[in-house]
Amino acid sequence: MKKYFSIFALSLALCLGFASCGVETDEPAGGTAVEKMAGHWVVTVDAYDEAGNLLYEDPYGMGEWDMYTYNTANNDADQMWLSDGDNFWGYTLKVPIDLNAQTFGIQNGFMYNDGDDDQFCTISNGKIIPNGGLNVNGKPTDAIEYDITFTDDGYGFVYHIHGVRYAGF
Q1: Where do the domains of the chain lie?
Q2: How crowded is the C-beta side of 99, counted as CA atoms within 13 Å?
Q3: What is the per-residue pLDDT across 95-106, written as a single tens digit (0 to 9) for each?
Q4: Which of 32, 114, 115, 157 has a beta carbon 3.0–4.6 Å from 47's, enabling a disulfide?
């Protein structure tokens, strides 16, 4: 009896094993439309006045923090999401991009997760620079930088966000 049970169990395992190896789609795996610009970034912020004079390096004592760029649900090639991950000002917004030049920016962009319906920001000089920075191991990696202003900033600073692609360390 034990022999028949073992043969049955082995047959069942083989049947299930072969059934689970079926191909579900012939679609090759691939990236998103904004794959070149999407990523997890480690950035810092500096504050400038409107004339471009540096006022404060790391004005809020935050050090390095994480931010993200990623594709829209429609996988558009002309816009992406930009989010500070609730680490700086609490913004997430769609920004128009130029994929070939790897640049981005927006005038009076609506900040989706700010919590206040009347808050907007302007992003200028946004760009991804291929191999424009060094990761924690000193190896070349992509860099990101942009200037951002907020309608609810009482100081009127222009914040310069800059950093490199997260290396995983």
Answers
A1: 39-165
A2: 14
A3: 999 999 999 999
A4: 157
Class at the top of the CATH hierarchy for domain 39-165: mainly beta
- Pair 128, 139: CB distance under 8 Å: no
Tokens describing residue 123: 């992003």
pLDDT at 136: 87
Residue (of 168, 150, 148, 151) closest to 159 by Cα position: 148
Alpha carbons 32 and 36: distance in angstroms, whole number: 9
7-to-20, 21, 140 alpha-carbon distances in Å: 20, 22, 57
Neighbours of 167 (CB within 10 A): 13
Tell me if 44 sits within 8 A of 163, measured CB to CB: yes
Question: Are 65 and 42 a contacting pair, CB within 8 Å?
Answer: yes
**What is the structure's pLDDT at 128?**
98
Classify 9 as helix, strand or coil: helix
